[in-house]
């Protein structure tokens, strides 16, 4: 593999390693050896170290003194903790859209996402379905106008992607349910019904968490 754009090399290495972790090619608790990554990608050791620090910030690796970097482990406590926190962050974003949209045009990005989710569901395209699910929160960032919220969500998103990837096969049967929830969420946003926004997003996160946990047990 060859990388370009030296000014973002560490981010590219981090993205490469993150994809391997998310897909399960690098297993929980597996050590990531700097030298092997350096040789495999033909990059500097300093860039690899910086990439690992990025992954630590994104909760995909743990770096321990004298033990190096290891892929973070997946367990029930960590998953429930992650889902609980992400649920509250999603609610903050949902409330921002509900209170901040001024016209139907403001909601056009979400209607586009809804259409793409529907098409992905019809194709049983889980990968696209998950990607579009995360696109919802990014479409909400301008309404929140909160760089700290955005940074926190972006740093947690890879860990959530990893969890969802674990449950990909099981999501086939759940996609229609999530489409219904998304339609309910849009209705709540249009009505500026913050209580309903919380109810729908709490249900979504709860169902997602249980789906991932069942996949973790089966795995």
UniProtKB/TrEMBL annotation:
Residues 7-74 form the HTH gntR-type domain. Transmembrane segments: none annotated. Keywords: DNA-binding, Transcription, Transcription regulation. GO terms for molecular function: DNA binding; DNA-binding transcription factor activity. Gene3D superfamilies: GntR ligand-binding domain-like, Winged helix-like DNA-binding domain superfamily/Winged helix DNA-binding domain. It holds the Pfam family FCD. This is GntR family transcriptional regulator. It comes from Pseudomonas putida (Arthrobacter siderocapsulatus). The lineage of its organism: Bacteria, Pseudomonadati, Pseudomonadota, Gammaproteobacteria, Pseudomonadales.
């Amino acid at each position: 593999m060859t990388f370009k754009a030296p000014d973002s090399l560490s981010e590219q290495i981090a993205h490469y390693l993150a994809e391997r972790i998310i897909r399960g090619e690098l297993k929980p608790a597996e050590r990531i050896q700097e030298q092997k990554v350096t040789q495999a990608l033909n990059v500097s050791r300093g860039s690899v170290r910086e990439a690992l620090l990025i992954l630590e910030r994104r909760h995909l690796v743990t770096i321990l003194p004298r033990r190096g970097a290891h892929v973070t482990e997946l367990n029930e406590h960590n998953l429930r903790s992650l889902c609980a926190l992400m649920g509250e962050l999603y609610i903050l974003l949902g409330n921002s859209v509900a209170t901040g949209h001024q016209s139907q045009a403001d909601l056009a990005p979400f209607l586009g996402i809804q259409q793409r989710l529907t098409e992905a569901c019809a194709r049983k395209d889980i990968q696209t379905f998950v990607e579009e699910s995360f696109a919802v929160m990014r479409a909400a960032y301008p309404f929140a106008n909160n760089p700290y919220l955005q940074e926190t969500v972006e740093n947690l998103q890879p860990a959530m992607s990893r969890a969802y990837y674990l449950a990909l096969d099981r999501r086939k049967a759940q996609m229609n349910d999530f489409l219904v929830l998304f339609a309910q969420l849009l209705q709540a946003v249009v009505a500026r019904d913050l209580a309903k926004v919380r109810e729908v997003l709490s249900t979504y996160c709860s169902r997602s968490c249980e789906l991932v946990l069942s996949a973790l047990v089966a795995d």
